[in-house]
Write a structure and sequence with these properties.
Length: about 350
């Protein structure tokens, strides 16, 4: 144990000395010169990248034929170039074996879910959170620190949400304007703006190749990938699995259901469903529907003797038509002598062998 701690301290000191040797310090001495911006950075390269956000300069352009995308950061361009590859590379987390699309998402996932897990743990009840503001909002339940709005008496557990709410009362900025033709109404709340948009007729987006119609433009863009001449492929990275998909969401669903065994369970009947959409459909049809679902077999034929009384095999062989009550007695083997004597068949006199 002593040797391990000594090696760790030596590695940390060596890293600090190397950072100082190349001029890297923790002091943020490179400050942004734009008005109203108080950002500061450790390196001049990061300051230059930040300034491009103010100027809007996108010097990193994609050189793929037919693509005019440009970015302010080289890492963003590198991430975009992966979309032009037919077979994209996936990254797997060694902690939870989850697959991610690029290295940037991989680092962000690891820092949020595994490296900072100890920092985002409640010391009172040991609950783990993925984001810092969730932990601060949770800690107010233990400390009792609640923030009450003086305008509408609403109570908030998070300081961030409280300050955002107070700003809406103080400024009353109307930032959401309706873009429908002949309507210029402005709203200061997103929920009210969304409810107002539903009153206007829906604008449909039509596909040029197959004439399909979509209510949202993002759905049309996703659908247009089907008609592309060259499509990206997402193969399954597990051994002995040759499944290939055109969409990454389908690949994630395949890995979650078939390899990781993670499915969505119904809280009512404990059934395991492959996707969240199918789980909602399952609950809607089987548990929330008022009408019973009638399931009839395909090609079922109607009986020829439907609506008539059932006859026993004895009466058919003998050739006697018995009343329905007697037929039921014969079928159930309930022999009663008075009925049998009453309906006993008569044998003709010319046939002594039958006597």
């Amino acid at each position: 144990m002593g040797q391990d701690t000594n090696s760790e301290t030596e590695s940390v000191s060596f890293e600090l000395e190397s950072r100082k040797a190349i001029g890297c310090t923790d002091e943020k001495k490179y400050k942004c010169s734009f008005d109203g911006c108080d950002k500061a950075f450790v390196r001049p390269s990061r300051l230059a990248r930040h300034i491009r956000l103010h100027t809007g300069e996108k010097c990193y352009k994609c050189n793929h034929p037919g693509c005019d995308k440009a970015y302010t950061n080289s890492s963003h361009l590198k991430r975009h170039m992966e979309t032009h590859n037919l077979i994209r590379k996936t990254y797997q987390c060694h902690e939870c074996l989850q697959f991610l699309s690029n290295q940037h998402n991989m680092k962000r996932h690891y820092n949020r879910m595994h490296r900072d897990r100890d920092k985002l743990t409640c010391k009172e009840c040991n609950l783990i959170f993925t984001k810092k503001y969730q932990l601060t909002a949770h800690m107010s339940m233990h400390t009792g620190e609640l923030h009450k709005c003086t305008y509408c008496c609403r109570i908030f557990t998070s300081v961030r949400l409280y300050k955002k709410h107070v700003v809406n009362h103080e400024t009353r900025k109307k930032t959401y304007t309706c873009t429908a033709s002949g309507c210029n109404e402005v709203f200061n709340k997103w929920r009210a703006f969304c409810n107002h948009r539903k009153t206007h007729p829906t604008i449909y987006h039509k596909c040029k190749d197959c004439d399909k119609v979509f209510s949202k433009e993002c759905h049309l863009k996703l659908h247009s990938k089907i008609h592309a001449k060259v499509r990206a492929l997402f193969p399954c990275s597990y051994e002995d699995c040759s499944r290939v998909y055109h969409f990454k969401s389908n690949l994630d669903t395949h890995i979650r259901n078939n390899h990781q065994g993670r499915k969505f369970q119904c809280d009512i009947c404990k059934a395991e469903i492959s996707s969240k959409a199918k789980l909602a459909e399952h609950i809607q049809k089987l548990h929330m529907s008022r009408k019973l679902i009638k399931r009839t077999s395909k090609g079922q034929r109607k009986r020829k003797d439907a609506g008539t009384h059932k006859r026993s095999a004895v009466s058919k062989l003998v050739g006697i038509k018995l009343p329905p009550k007697v037929e039921q007695m014969v079928i159930k083997r309930e022999l009663r002598i008075p009925y049998i004597e009453k309906f006993e068949p008569t044998v003709p006199d010319d046939n002594p062998d039958l006597r």
